[in-house]
Amino acid sequence: MPSVAPMSPDNLVAKLIPWYREVKRPLPWRRDRDPYRIWVSEVMLQQTTVTAVIPFYEKFTKSFPTLQALAKASEGDVLAHWAGLGYYSRARSLHKSARALAKLGTFPKTFAQLIELPGFGPYTSRAVASLAFGEAVGVVDGNVIRVLSRVLDLDLEWWKPRDRDLIQIEADRLAQARLENANVDPSDLNQALMELGATICTPKSPTCMLCPWGRLCRARKNESTHLRPRPKPRRESEIWLWTPEIIQRSDKRLLLVKNSYAPFLKGHLIWPGTATRLKTKPKSFHYKGGVTHHEIFVNVVASKKPSSKAELKRWAAVDAVWISPNEMKTKVPSSLIRKAVTLLELDDTTTT
Ligand code: SF4
Predict the structure, then answer these.
(1) What CA–CA distance (Å, rounded) separates 60 from 39?
(2) Ligand 1 centroid to residue 4 C-alpha, Å
(3) CA angle (328, 77, 45) in 5-degree steps
(4) Mutate to test the pocket of ligand 1, among 149, 217, 221, 228 (most ligand atoms within 8 A of CB)
(5) What is the pLDDT confidence band of residue 193, given thresholds at 50, 70 and 90?
(6) How far is the CA of 129 from the centre of ligand 1 (A)?
(7) Is the Cβ atom of 151 under 6 angstroms away from ligand 1?
(8) What is residue 84's DSSP assignment?
(9) CA Rg value for the chain
(10) Which of 49, 68, 162, 208 has the highest local Cβ count within 10 Å?
């Protein structure tokens, strides 16, 4: 395992905390230390920026102000509040975990307890334990990886577990630093690291002149800032042709099935149909969209009504639901699915 030349965590913390207390942004999840709200914000912030998350967070916590309120909500309602944030598996997992937590009757306080819960990974468990309950554990997100890679000038393959562990060790050392006569809360320390990465030590143009670590930073001294952290090798993008079949019943309701055939939108309710991987982009299609590394070209088939009772029974046997065109707006969050309704100009009074 590569080693990291030591740097005094006390020196780093002594510079970082006063800076953070002066500049920290008044983010809505920083108003109090409610573990439920911190948890929701941390799940929303995974792969989404602070600015994008704020309106969703405000709306979500207004509709589901407590863990119990979220646990009691229907999955459709939760997904409707998530619409626009993407990565809907996060919303499903949050909802499922809320139900498990509500049964416990108390919010576990430590990383070791939280990691045992369904839906709580290492990052979320550390974030809640530290930000809500002040446990001295480091919280390593993309901002923290960048900041620590630069200040310590770490040339690591940080996406690999072995190197990721090294960054975690450094983050833990900082969270555990105790300064004489200074009341340093691990929550402040972790949030300060994230704040530094989000506002000063940004990916492309870090403003080192304004950085509290400007004089300590090894990458700045070694002129390697632009090389840290190493870029993660990109996952190759895949081209897919999706041919959804839009089947409408005589009461205008549309058929959606639990996705078991396409590699994108896994576990979602989607149209029945087929998905085929292509080598090149098709020339003709109705619309296109992207989900993670999948580039999806959509050719909609406005299908016949189910022709017989037997066919209706067949659909009832699979994991399927019938939704009216107007309900699609609130019950189906993915625009990739909803666009077919717009394309065919379906509403609660039309038929295919
Ligand atoms: S000195 Fe520059 S590169 Fe180093 S931590 Fe601060 S902003 Fe980042």
Answers:
(1) 12
(2) 17
(3) 105
(4) 217
(5) very high
(6) 27
(7) yes
(8) T
(9) 24
(10) 208
Instruction: Name the E strands within the chain.
Output: 238-246, 254-258, 269-270, 273-278, 287-291, 294-298, 301-302, 320-323
Ligand 1 atom nearest residue 210's Cα: 7
89-113 pLDDT, tens per residue? 889 899 999 999 999 988 999 999 9
Structural domains of the chain sorted by starting position, each given as residue range(s) with its CATH number in brackets: 9-227 (1.10.340.30), 238-343 (3.90.79.10)
Closest CA to 297 of 236, 241, 238: 241
Question: Is 42 an annotated catalytic residue?
Answer: yes
Tell me: pLDDT of 307 over 80: no
Q: What is the pLDDT of residues 282-301, one digit of tens each?
A: 999 999 999 989 999 999 99
Rounded-to-integer distance, Cα 155 and Cα 153, Å:
6
What pLDDT is attached to residue 311? 67
Residue pLDDT, tens place only, 133-170: 999 999 999 999 999 999 999 999 999 999 999 999 99
320 lines ligand 1 (CB under 6 A): no
What is the pTM (predicted TM-score) of this model? 0.76
